[in-house]
Amino acid sequence: MLLNVQKIINAPGERIDFQFEMDLSDVDFSGLYPAQDPVVVTGDVRNTAGMLLLQFTAGTVLRSVCDRCLKRFDNPKSVRCEYMLAERVEEESDEIVLLEDGKVDAGELARTAFILEMDSKTLCSEDCKGLCPRCGADLNLGPCSCKKELDPRLAALASLLENK
Fold this sequence. Notes:
There is one protein chain. A five-stranded mixed sheet has the order 2-3-4-5-6, with helices on one face. The chain has a two-stranded antiparallel sheet with strand order 1-7. By secondary structure, the protein is mostly beta strands. It is 12% helix and 35% strand. The protein has helices spanning 106-116, 155-163, and strands at residues 2-4, 15-22, 39-48, 51-65, 72-86, 96-98, 103-105.
């Protein structure tokens, strides 16, 4: 979404509000497509003391799979970003975005920020116990019936305990 901010460049105290939706359902993230719902972007551009400040929040509910127990769950995700806008800069910076003919592509900024902030590891809960490596039972539902495997380095000590 291109925003034309030309009218507020020389107008301190002015602002432009915006809201739009992005479709990220085609974004492949580790073999999954978690952003099935539209990503809603809400923000504004403000002229504060002669500086243009672009702020926005992008949020949706991601369809995720827990990396420990493989359970599907809804994962609310919200990203907040802030950028300074300038017509020209002396030094390049990640926080300063150059305007092109008084316009900024807020859609591309929001898309990039949202994708970069997606979690590389998703858990259904912080204390998820995962699956048993032997039988595949969900350990969140209770312990499995597998006998614990003994570390081969401690086998000799275990045999001493069995003899008593």
